[in-house]
Every structure is written in C-alpha cells, then in structure tokens.
C-alpha cells in the first residue's frame, strides 16, 4: 500500500501533461502560421503555457531538492507530480503574476512549495533548496535562447523567433527577481540560513510583504528602467536582441492588434 501511494505521489499530473500538449500544439501553430491573423492568439497560448510549464518545473526543483535533503513530506503533498494546482495561491500565483506578465512583460513564479525546515540538516542544503527554483528558470532561458546563441535561426519563422525571445525574457526576469535577497523571494532563502537567528526573527514578520514591495518598486520608472537594463544585458549575452523581445511581446498582446477581429 505504501508503495502504491508513493508511486501516485510521484506520478506526473495530467494537468501538467495538458500544459505540455498546449505548448506543443500552439508552438506548432506559431511555426506553421496556420492561424493567419490569429497568430497572436497562438503566440499567447505558446508563451502562457510555456510560462506555466516553467513554473511547475521551478517548484518541482524546490521540492525535489528538498526531498533529497531530508524532507520526505513533499511527496505526500503532491509537489512531485508537477501539478500547478498543488503550488497555487490565488493572489500570488495567478492574479499578480498575470498582471505583471500582461502589463509589464515580467515573469515571476508565484507558486509555493512549503518545506518542513526541521527535517533539513545543514545550511548548505537549505540554501540549495531555495536556489533550485530560479536556477531552473535560468536553465529554461538557456534552452529557449539556444537557437539565438547557436546561430540556428536560419529557417525559423519570424513569429516563432519572437515568441521564443519573449518567453526567454520571462525566464530571465524570473531568475533575476527571484535571486533578489528580499524576504519572501528565493534569494533571501539562499542567504537566510547564514544570518544570525535574532536577525532572522526580526525579518520574519515582514517576509509576506517582500514580494508586494518588489512589485511596487517596479512601478517606479527609474527602478523599472534599471531592472530591464540588466535583463536586456543578460539577453544580449544569450544572443537575443531588444527588437526580438519587443515584437514577441507585441504578438503576445494580440488584443491590441488593430487587425485583430
């Protein structure tokens, strides 16, 4: 019985498989241009499903690292199934990230994997668990930009190129933001085990406001400009130009196209 439960707790969720299917089908539609004036809809589906797949992988990386670090409770909580519904918090996981995705073109995984810290031994393991998520986004960005930095864009349809570039931008923004040493973000989780216990207790009550504070600061033009300047620098290093991401975002916002019915 225990074995059966363990297998079920690790079985890949049909929800995740459905997201992968949407990613594949919409990617094919963007590549082939089969939707004509509705190409932006296909780009929207491709980028959104790709973003949700990366969110699942981000949280799975946290959970899998925690499992190997001693917290076997992640299994029973369903975190190893890649089911996004297991990581969902309505405000932080859906509403705010969707607003920033549509309005500012910023990707930030809003899911949550709750780790039982008492089961984890050693500060390095705690830090690695926190770092595993954004490192997954970084790896996703490298994969998305592979055609760019490998000079493999010959024959790639323009719309697909732009869609990949915008999806890569979301991964880079997620990586940069998550590595900020702000309470409530993974960057703080990396350094938290190394802080004096008294300081950690003082900071703990404010952790819930960390993400909201970052969101608020990103509305400031100076902060927004500096942030995207850093993101653009990283993307250029991966072979992606600003026009690539700009037109990708324009296609993503298909409802703003005057030619859209």
Describe the structure.
By secondary structure, the protein is mainly α. The longest helix has 30 residues, at 39-68. The chain has 13 helices and no strands.
Secondary structure blueprint with pairings:
Layout: H1 2-10, H2 14-32, H3 39-68, H4 73-76, H5 90-103, H6 123-144, H7 146-149, H8 158-178, H9 186-191, H10 197-203, H11 207-218, H12 221-237, H13 242-252
User: Major sheet, described briefly?
Assistant: none
Tell me the series of helices and strands, N- to C-terminal: HHHHHHHHHHHHH
Quickly count the helices: 13
Q: Which radius of gyration do the C-alpha atoms yield? A: 19 Å
Q: Bin the helical content.
A: 55-70%
Keywords: Cell membrane, Hydrolase, Membrane, Metal-binding, Metalloprotease, Protease, Transmembrane, Transmembrane helix, Zinc
Transmembrane segments: 12-31, 37-57, 90-115, 127-150, 162-183, 203-220
Subcellular location: Cell membrane
InterPro entries: Metallopeptidase_M50B, Rip2-like
For this entry, give a set of tags.
261 residues; Metallopeptidase_M50B; mainly alpha; hydrolase; metal-binding; 67% helix
Compact description:
The protein has 13 helices and no strands.
